[in-house]
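To fix ideas, we quote verbatim a fold written out as tokens:
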Amino acid sequence: MTEKKIEYEEWIEKAEKDLHAAEINLKQSLYEVSAFLSQQAAEKALKAAYILKYKRLWKIHDLEQLGEKVDAPEGIIKICKELTQHYILTRYPDEEEYAKEDAEAALKQAKEVIEWSKNRLKKLMENSKQKK
């Protein structure tokens, strides 16, 4: 029998899976799909931190707002603002064509957000243990 994962752990695992899928799609030259999955990976990582901090899910796709709620530093907030556009632009065929560089940049940014989110989760866990 497997141990039931805590909700925020499930979200960070989903973020890592989306990041992996973004890497695969980049290699397959599916740049808009890669950029979309990069945005999704960052969103899920931020939601993991949000869930741990507030004990509930916030159904929002604006990474900038999510980042602000989980106390992300200005550099991460800036990345979040840039990544959020991929949630919209990649979904409509009449928008601009994605180039390899666009997908690579989104993937790099998503990795930064995920890394920051994992560190934030550790700090939030340490803080919750100290309060007990």
